[in-house]
Amino acid sequence: MTADETAERYADSRAGMSLVDFAEVGLPAWHVLARCDILARKAISAIDETIMRAVELGVDTVSELEFMLGLDEIVLDSAITGIVAHGWAHGLADDRVEITAAGRVVIVEAHEIVSREVVVRFDYDGLLRRLTFHGALVDPRDGGHRGWRAVPASPERPPEVAEIRSERQAIERLMRSLGDGREQESQLLAINRLDRRDRQFIPAVALVFAPVRTGRCEVAFAIDGTLSPEHEAAFANANLIERLTLDRRLRAVQRRPLVVPGPSDLRDEVDGPALSAVREQLRDARSLSEELGPEAPESADARRDARAALSAITPRIVEPYEHPALLRVAAATSRERLLIVSPRISDEHVTPTLLRQLRKTLESGALARIVYTEISAGQERAKTLLDGLARDFSGLVIEKREVTEEHAVLLSDRRFVVAGAYPWLAQLGDRDRPIADRRSVLCADPQRTDAEWEVWDGRTKDAPGRPSPSGEKVRSRRRRRRRRSGRTT
């Protein structure tokens, strides 16, 4: 499940609150190697078992055992000495051997209980401060390359031996579940020391909710597409929300309601009741899809009707999770003009799929402009790929211009324009992006799209003297062969 799919699933999970932003994060964890003492069952040696069983059958003198088993005298004496030392037998007069009660138990089970030191591997959650069984931890370097935000542990120090000892029962259960046969009956005696504590990430999606009126923002965490109330509570109790770089508007919601980003004239024209009714219809369609399955005819019809009702409302508020789908539609289906204004650009968005869609749009003769202010730290590959596409097509313009976070725009032909604070090319993969209200306003009025295009670009597709895309093949003239003279020598 992608981050935007997770955001869509839980966008309406909190009454009186709106989902304003989401981001991929790495929850703190450590991969621990602990050196422990355990009591484990161990099979006794074949010689010991044979000697003890022979004694039980009445062959109880050293000479009889030596003759019956065919063992060397030194080997037999050594084995009997070991059996006596374990308390499984004791010697009698006339070189006779007698099995003890403990020895009879060992004969029946053919095992002994021994103490030994082992290295136990497990993962430790840095927020919940206990063992975690997530099983798909990520190295922080890999998460950093993808732009994940690192959620700090609480406390930030790695686990110590004294802290791990409180998880003794969980470690013992882990040992038994991972062991086979005899190891499933092992008992943990002591945790001696920690050999390694490697920092890891638990992949998650942080969902930021803001109150409709006033109050505090809340951050929920979804792991593998499922909300984790325990991580949310630990995060809130440790007061770590400020470590996510909240925008000043989200910090001020305790004093005044949050205003949706975007043009004020469009925002004021939004039909709130009608939009709320359609959102409720979408929620019902999602519930029906989860109940009957997405392929059921009833589910497909409900989703199609709800989306058609949503498309009919203009202008309307665009939720953060709706933006990726709008970007895909605009990049793949625009045939006249395409505008993307994104204050930042990150590698996570400039994918082969997006480049393929842009190339197809430009090959159709459409005009395109991408406006940005800066490249996300360490994300130069995205700009290089876009510049390469611009060299192939003169219809694409890559422009660097000062753009604020609240003035991001997506425009497709004369169909729609979306204006607000959603960073179209940097929502994911940019760990320095501040958490803010990422909603926008969509308008499907052709006149509005024309006006917005004039502000940012102004080119027309049929303008005289417009150069053809440099990527188009130019038909070369066929070279005329020179007629040879008919004279002969």
Structural class: alpha+beta
Figure out the total of helices.
17
Span of the ends, CA to CA: 83 Å
Q: How much helicity do the residues have?
A: 25-40%
How many domains make up the coordinates? 3
Main beta sheet: 7 strands, mixed
The poorly predicted ranges are 464-489
Q: How many distinct beta strands?
A: 18
Rg, rounded, reads 36 Å
Compact summary:
The protein is 35% helix and 25% strand. It folds into three domains: 3-36 and 117-251, no CATH class; 45-109, Orthogonal Bundle (Arc Repressor Mutant, subunit A), CATH 1.10.10.10; 264-271 and 313-456, Endonuclease, Chain A (2-Layer Sandwich). By secondary structure, it is an alpha+beta fold.
Explain what the structure shows.
The structure is a single chain. With 489 residues, the protein is α+β, with helices and mostly antiparallel strands. It folds into three domains: 3-36 and 117-251, no CATH class; 45-109, Arc Repressor Mutant, subunit A, CATH 1.10.10.10; 264-271 and 313-456, Endonuclease Chain A (Endonuclease, Chain A), CATH 3.30.870. It has helices at residues 3-10, 46-56, 62-69, 73-85, 101-109, 140-145, 161-165, 168-178, 229-237, 248-251, 264-268, 272-292, 297-311, 323-333, 352-363, 380-392, 446-456, and strands at residues 17-43, 89-91, 97-99, 111-125, 130-132, 149-150, 187-211, 218-223, 226-227, 316-318, 337-341, 344-345, 367-372, 374-375, 396-400, 408-412, 416-420, 440-443. Strands 1, 4, 5, 6, 7, 8 and 9 form a seven-stranded mixed β-sheet that branches. Strands 10-18-17-16-11-13-15 form a seven-stranded mixed β-sheet, sandwiched between helices. Helix 2 (46-56) packs across helix 4 and helix 14 packs parallel to helix 15. The radius of gyration is 36 Å and the shape is elongated. 33% of the residues are buried. The model is unreliable at 464-489 (pLDDT under 50).
